[in-house]
């Protein structure tokens, strides 16, 4: 099964976001809830996971597993999105920044749905 445009876009998205974990790790560490131990190590681990998942999306035999793993990763990192909003409110961010962070929260489930539809249960794989 040949990858479609959604697979290429998702792969690019996860490679870029995964790479950013190594370029600006402090930004990711700051948005992790403080109750999570080993936050710096987890930033790097999740970066590797995103890149590995992105590359696995491109391989037909690994695509569904990669999609399931990436969807699970997106669920696991959702608390960071909430922490980012809490940090913004606590730090006195502008109303616009806070509104954008509120608007970002529902994007995570939409991204999970996109991964599901493109990699785990693509419409073009209904007969296979």
Mean pLDDT: 93
| Coarse structural class | mainly alpha
Strand runs, count: 0
Helix proportion of residues, in percent? over 70%
SSE order, one letter for each helix or strand = HHHHHHH
Distance between the termini: 10 Å
Strand content: under 5%
Oligomer description: single chain
The residue ranges in which pLDDT falls below 50 over 5 or more consecutive positions are none
Radius of gyration: 16 Å
Overall spatial form: globular
Total number of helical segments? 7
| Biggest beta sheet summary | none
How do the helices and strands line up, and which of them pair or pack?
Layout lengths: L4 H19 L1 H6 L8 H19 L5 H14 L1 H13 L4 H10 L2 H14 L8
Helix pairs in contact: 1-3, 3-4, 4-7, 5-6
Task: Give a verbal description of the structure.
- Helix 5 packs antiparallel against helix 6 (95-104).
- It is globular and about 50 Å long.
- The chain has helices at residues 5-23, 25-30, 39-57, 63-76, 78-90, 95-104, 107-120.
- The model has no long low-confidence stretch (mean pLDDT 93).
- The protein is mostly helical.
- The chain has a domain at 5-75 and 108-125.
- The N and C termini lie close together (10 Å).
């Amino acid at each position: 099964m040949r990858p479609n445009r959604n697979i290429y876009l998702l792969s690019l998205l996860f490679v870029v976001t995964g790479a950013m974990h190594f370029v600006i790790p402090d930004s990711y560490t700051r948005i992790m809830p403080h109750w999570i131990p080993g936050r710096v190590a987890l930033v790097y681990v999740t970066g590797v996971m995103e890149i590995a998942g992105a590359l696995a999306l491109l391989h037909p035999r690994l695509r569904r597993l990669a999609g399931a793993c990436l969807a699970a990763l997106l669920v696991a990192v959702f608390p960071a999105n909430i922490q980012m909003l809490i940090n913004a409110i606590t730090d006195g961010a502008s109303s616009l920044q806070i509104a954008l962070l509120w608007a970002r929260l529902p994007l995570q489930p939409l991204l999970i749905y996109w991964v599901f539809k493109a990699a785990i249960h693509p419409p073009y794989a209904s007969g296979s």
